[in-house]
Design a protein that fits this description.
single chain, mainly beta, five-stranded antiparallel β-sheet, 1 helix, 5 strands
Amino acid sequence: MDLFEQDGNGVAEGLPPPPPVPPNVVPMQAESENAVEPAKKKIVRLPIARRGSGSKGQKIPIITNHFKVNVTNVDGHFFHYSVALSYEDGRPVDGKGVGRKVIDRVHETYDTELAGKDFAYDGEKSLFTVGPLPRNKLEFTVVLEDISSNRYMVLLLH
């Protein structure tokens, strides 16, 4: 095998000589390792503006899960809590619509412990308040009379 032939694995055994340097090129010295890096610019990302609305295709109605919210207390902060609903024996609650009934009962039963604070519940796993809930331990037990398995545990995780 000569210097530029490949071995059995397709890898060249040696490198070809570097190309000749043209006479009009002036060599430069590389910067040392402790040279100061130029300051990096912060990248600002902006949404792309949309011009008008579409004019092609078929118009269809769309239902979204977004809604307008008016807040009178602009000094407060929104707090998000993850909701875990379970039966008293620890099985998770999976029935649709039960979550709202359980959370409504928590609001009724524990109103004074929650300092009368209102909250918004999405019906599944999210609960929102303006400002934090006053209790440190956010585990509640409630009873619903109109459902066969009527004792529920509610755990709110911040």
